[in-house]
Amino acid sequence: MSAEKIYWDSDAFLGWFQEDVGKADLCRHTLERARNGEVLIVTSTLGIAESLWLRGQTKIPKDRAELVRKFFRRSYIRTHNVTRKIAEDAQDLVWDKDIAPKDAIHVATALSLSIPVIETFDKKLIAKSSLFEGLEIRNPLPPKQGTFDYD
Fold this sequence. Notes:
Elements: E1 4-8, H1 10-17, H2 23-35, E2 39-44, H3 45-50, H4 65-71, E3 77-80, H5 84-97, H6 101-112, E4 117-119, H7 123-126, E5 136-138
Parallel strand pairs: 1-2, 1-4, 2-3, 4-5
């Protein structure tokens, strides 16, 4: 059985790195599933640089550089290079779907790899989910609640 592929944009990584209340707990569930071999987290190489800082937030300090770099080398995280084709597909997403350029790189990468889910905390990007057939853009999911057996 192969692992489910889930794409993370930089906002998901930052939610984890910054230990944002609410975001980190949701990220933790996906990361636990990845550590257990259920999920493979994929991102663009753009996400490695972009995950250090989002506008309006505090930058990840340089003294955490090695931790961040090691994080992206984990066996359950795969990065994919931005190719010319992905960049041109991203241009089309900017023009045709009104998606911001960096977000368009992430969407184009996920689409090029046939990854069915992008996890992010970017509300503007989540709002664009209905524009894509076969691609869901959502927040990371909370753990499933267990069921109680009454018998």
